[in-house]
Specification:
Structural class: alpha/beta
Shape: globular
Number of helices: 15
Radius of gyration: 23 Å
Strand content: 25-35%
Distance between the termini: 15 Å
Strand order of the largest sheet: 2-9-1-10-11-12
Largest sheet: 6 strands, parallel
Mean pLDDT: 92
Length: 504
């Protein structure tokens, strides 16, 4: 069986996902077959495997760092919040149904066999498993039947590294307080502590670290600096949302919907010099962008209602009249149509008017579409005409089906039919400068992202240089190596190997 190490945090966004990815990369570089594992992930950023199964993108990122194909075994339970009180529950990559938080809390112990089956399958195939916890192990109201933090560490017999976030303050209280709230058996499983996101002179921190080790009887395995690596973030806690990005020559605004999902679709635009990618949630933040993106969402109808109430819908319609490109992806695409109907209560039930920019109606169904796709852009109209026929790849995850009105057939993409060789299927719709598609990851193709930036610059009458950036996958590989190099300098990797050898 594989040797294991588990990263747990004192809170959400302490840096667990990134540190786990870094260890995956280090172990890969050292010649070990390594896989990530998170028994239960709550996230709206998800991914479709080659088998058509759905998993959290954090484990996809970690699998990429380890140099392996993502598998749903790495994330057997995925919770996708639909509102403040409940989530869609996905087990082994397939939807079980929607559950209120209290109902899921009572149900989750039934999923332990699924969790252990997934973990043991990976452990039999790989040399190393890097596990990630969720939130904090000291959430004492949730500790009963825990399957993601200390409960998972016990089942996997994995030593634990506890991570605290010094950037948000109180890191010593975070680490000491977390350990204090653990049971004695659980405390013995914590073999090291990590101070994460440190800025400044570490010698000033050293007396506090010495006192922390004295109080907790657990060594500090490293002090990791605030890292400027460009890798995928964890959902609504993303620092990307809070950055005050200055408007550049070409300006792209992504509407920050309340239930935004798969915002990683747009990270590629951050590579281009002279291009600003901004997340906006108020009309005052919108300004005059060259392209407005309506992203995916876990609740299209609720988020469209928010868009309307916030005044952003009217601002987007005005921007469209002034020549801005409007591009909708998945739920954002559905919003652009004439109507949305939910007769089976998949989201909110009932029906509502869409933004009226594309001649289609969306009907939400109980069946979820989950598929990987590849193909090309269709012949495009308007500002993006120069990007016509560019190759693309990505995946679809959606509950709704669109129906075009009349004889309208101007699709945005032409995708290979996975069931009929040589045949193609249409996806999306376009009218003038308004475009929509169900394909997540469509911009990751360099021909698509570079083509769009060039088209926007041409329409604006500005010149951008140095647009030939490296392939996005190559760029991500360089960031994984940078992450690993940083962790090797600031973590005691030999000590971590010893922890894994000794176990618990």
């Amino acid at each position: 069986m594989a040797k294991a190490i588990m990263i747990q945090g004192t809170m959400s966004n302490a840096g667990k996902s990134l540190l786990a990815a870094g260890l995956c990369r280090i172990f890969k570089q050292d010649g070990y077959r390594t896989a990530p594992f998170k028994s239960q992930n709550m996230a709206l950023n998800s991914f479709i495997t080659r088998e058509g199964l759905e998993m959290g993108r954090a484990q996809v990122m970690q699998a990429e760092a380890a140099g392996i194909e993502p598998s749903v075994l790495m994330n057997p339970i995925l919770l996708k919040p639909t509102n403040d009180l409940g989530s869609q529950v996905i087990v082994n990559g397939e939807v079980v149904g929607n559950m209120a938080a209290r109902d899921y809390f009572a149900y989750k112990k039934k999923l332990i066999p699924d969790v252990m089956r997934a973990y043991e399958t990976l452990a039999a195939e790989y040399d190393m498993i890097v596990l990630e916890g969720a939130g904090s192990p000291a959430e004492i109201n949730l500790k009963q039947e825990d399957i993601v933090n200390m409960g998972m560490a016990k089942m996997a017999k994995a030593p634990v590294l506890l991570v605290g976030d010094i950037d948000r303050g109180g890191v010593f209280a975070q680490l000491a307080g977390t350990l204090m709230l653990l049971e004695e058996e659980e405390r013995r499983m914590v073999k090291g502590m990590i101070v994460n996101k440190f800025r400044g002179d570490q010698t000033i921190l050293d007396p506090g670290i010495a006192r922390l080790e004295e109080l907790c009887h657990v060594p500090v395995t490293g002090v990791v600096p605030y890292m400027h690596v460009d890798l995928e973030d964890e959902d609504s806690l993303s620092e990307r949302f809070e950055k005050k990005t200055e408007v550049a020559l070409v300006d792209i605004a992504v509407v920050r919907l309340p239930r935004i999902s798969n915002f990683t679709d747009f990270n590629v635009f951050e590579q281009f010099s002279g291009v600003s990618l901004r997340y906006v949630k108020k009309t005052s933040e919108l300004k005059e962008p060259d392209m407005i993106i309506l992203p995916g969402t876990k609740n299209t109808m609720q988020d469209l209602a928010w868009l309307r109430q916030s005044g952003l819908e009217a601002a987007i319609l005005k921007a469209k009249e002034n020549g801005a490109v409007i591009f909708g992806v998945c739920g954002g695409y559905q919003m652009l149509g004439e109507t949305l109907a939910d007769p089976k209560g998949v989201e909110e039930g009932g029906s509502m008017r869409g933004m009226g920019l594309l001649p289609m109606d969306t009907i939400f169904a109980g069946e979820k579409t989950r598929t990987r796709v590849e193909g090309t852009l269709n012949k495009l109209e308007g500002t993006l005409a120069g990007v016509s026929h560019a190759p693309l790849y990505g995946y679809e995850i959606h509950m709704g089906m669109d129906r075009m009105r009349g004889n309208y057939m101007l699709a945005v993409t032409m995708l290979k039919d996975p069931e009929e060789a040589g045949l193609k299927k249409c996806d999306g719709a376009q009218v003038g400068n308004v475009y929509g598609t169900y394909v997540h990851g469509i911009f990751d193709s360099p021909q698509v992202s570079q083509g769009i930036v060039k088209a926007l610059a041409k329409a604006k009458g500005v010149t951008l240089t140095d647009l030939e950036t490296m392939d996005y996958q190559t760029y991500k590989e360089s960031q994984y190596d940078l992450l690993a190099d940083t962790l090797r300098k600031h973590l005691d990797i030999k000590q971590i190997y010893r922890m894994m050898e000794e176990g618990i």
